[in-house]
Amino acid sequence: MKSMTGFAHRTISAKGFLGSITLKSYNNRFFDLSLSIPASASGIEPNIREFLGSRISRGKIECTLRLKKTEATLDDITMNFQSAKTLTEQLRNLALACGLNDTPSLDVLTRFPGVIELNTDIDESELWQILFPTMEETWREFEESRIREGLATQQNITNQMNRFTSKLDEIEQNAGQLEQLVHDQITARFKELLGDNYDESRVLQELAVQLVRLTINEEIQRLKAHISAFKAIAAEPSCGKKLDFLCQEMNREVNTIGSKNMLVAVSLAVVEMKDALENIREQLRNVE
């Protein structure tokens, strides 16, 4: 069981590149990936999306890539001589117009955009090969943070499910008493209407009809099956959505027991079970 919230940050320093990769995630019903990468590295966006999309089933994921070249070659630098000449002439004209005897220096000229251009384009296939090891390290750190938080969440869910199971056992123990109560009520009604001369077989017929309507044995057995399924699904890597759906089914069975019940002890147990399920569903909102 893994949490949907996690964080990891790794720095990059390899083959003339310097930067960092940051992964953050938050709760979300579906998989939602937001990427923030430099325009010069936009070509590797599909690689990052495939890498993360194949490993995460749901949650809002924010991936931030910071990257720059630390080494520049002659091929990376472009000198625009014509722009420099035009700019020099215009600056001289400006100086004459202002009555100044001044000539623009090289320091001034290189500050203007377009005079010297640094080529920041990056070879996509080469860049992904360079980044891949750091991306894997970031991913492992990210997964470890989600697993740690997931273990704490799993323990809370297990505690609530144990509470739920305990109350179901109490209800099962009272199921026989509920049937006896139905029998006593029907018998009392016949005595009230007919005195002691009522037909016992007629009582049994009415009892059978009422037990079909009021018995909770089927709900108890279905809840036991749901509990077993819950434990099995909880062992899967991405189980949050399935478990939430299963909790909805369990809640319906508990509601049915509550609607059929006539015992105070069962009513109290139903309240406890509904509260446990609500706590479980709250925790599942943070499970992948």
The number of domains: 3
Number of strands: 6
Task: Assess the beta-strand content as a share of residues.
Answer: 5-15%
Helix content range: 55-70%
Strand order of the largest sheet: 1-2-4-3
Provide the gyration radius in Å: 36 Å
Average pLDDT, rounded to a whole number, is: 85
Given as residue ranges, the uncertain stretches (5+ residues, pLDDT < 50) are none
Listing every helix as H and every strand as E from the N terminus to the C terminus, the arrangement reads EEEHEEHHEHHHHH
Biggest sheet layout? 4 strands, mixed
Defining traits:
15% strand; two-stranded antiparallel sheet; 288 residues; four-stranded mixed beta sheet; alpha+beta
Please write out the topology:
Layout: E1 6-14, E2 17-26, E3 31-36, H1 45-53, E4 59-69, E5 77-79, H2 81-97, H3 106-109, E6 116-118, H4 124-194, H5 200-214, H6 217-234, H7 240-260, H8 264-284
Parallel strand pairs: 3-4
Antiparallel strand pairs: 1-2, 2-4, 5-6
Helix pairs in contact: 4-5, 4-6, 4-8, 6-7, 7-8
Organism: uncultured spirochete
Coiled coil: 154-181
GO molecular function, one term: RNA endonuclease activity
Question: What does it look like?
Answer:
- The structure is a single chain.
- This protein folds into 3 domains: 6-72 and 125-147; 81-114; 150-284, no CATH class.
- It is built from 8 helices and 6 strands, in the order βββαββααβααααα.
- It has helices spanning 45-53, 81-97, 106-109, 124-194, 200-214, 217-234, 240-260, 264-284; strands spanning 6-14, 17-26, 31-36, 59-69, 77-79, 116-118.
- The strands form 2 sheets. The chain has a 4-stranded mixed beta sheet with strand order 1-2-4-3, covered by helices on one side.
- The chain is rod-shaped, with a radius of gyration of 36 Å.
- The N and C termini lie close together (7 Å).
- Its cofactor is a divalent metal cation.
- Residues 154-181 form a coiled coil.
